[in-house]
Amino acid sequence: MTTATDNKILTLEIEVPIACFRQSRAREYAETYPVPPPSTVYGMLLSIVGETNRYKHCGVKIAIAMLTSGNALLSQPYKSTVIRTFRRFKNKDIHHPTNSRPDYQELLTDIKFITWINSQDDKSQPSLSEQLQQAFTNPASINRFGGLCLGESRDLVNSVTIVSENNQTQSLQWLVQDEDGLLTLPYWVDHVGSKGTRWQRYLILEPSEFSQPPESAWTVIQSS
User: Fold this and answer.
1) Residue 2 maps to a domain
2) 194-214: per-residue pLDDT in tens?
3) Is 90 part of any domain?
4) For residues 50 and 73, what is the distance between their CA atoms, to the nearest angstrom?
């Protein structure tokens, strides 16, 4: 894996101890996607630089690859199921007992992945890639708040590091677009309703040591 000299392109490695990427259509049983959706990764990147306007960097492209051990049996994060309290507003009184109930939720443990950020079509100045690089070189210049999470506020990120040019030996499973793919993931989420949510179909490739994203791995983050 290489970090391009062009400051519009950046490669990051992310590690998250535990998280749930809740499937959009999950109801009582909160299933998780096996990989973080592009929309979730984009939200985390905005959080790193303290950007609250998610429209600002529309046009940026991201690619995602799960880090593996090289062993197909160990290539995916471990999945477990817990029971927790969920809140749903059935009664206008926010404290009414009918607004909360226990349900099952799937969790992923030991999540490690690489994301590439290509800001060549990001019209903002500075671009998202440039802001991210600034966050590493001069953290004091970034004004942000809260913990860095991937998904729910509970799911704190353990580490985010820039991938060096010499680190090219890790085995990866690429998330690639495929019209026959079994994974339907959001790349843009409508938080008011579902009408504006945008989807793409993907599949996860077998482990490989390709150091650069294939063309089909790039997802354009856009609201329309």
Assistant:
1) no
2) 677 899 999 999 888 767 899
3) no
4) 37
CATH code, domain with 201 = 3.30.70
User: φ and ψ at 47, to 5 degrees?
Assistant: -65, -35
131 located within any domain: yes
- pLDDT over 70 at 169, yes or no: no
DSSP one-letter code for 178: -
Q: 88: which 2 tokens?
A: 């749903």
Rounding to the nearest 10 degrees, give the CA dihedral for residues 61, 9, 57, 195. 20
Six token digits for residue 62: 């991201």
Domain annotation covers residue 95: no
Domain limits at 17?
9-80+109-220
DSSP conformation letters of 119-132: -TT--SSS-HHHHH
Question: pTM for this one?
Answer: 0.87
Into how many domains does the chain fold?
A: 1
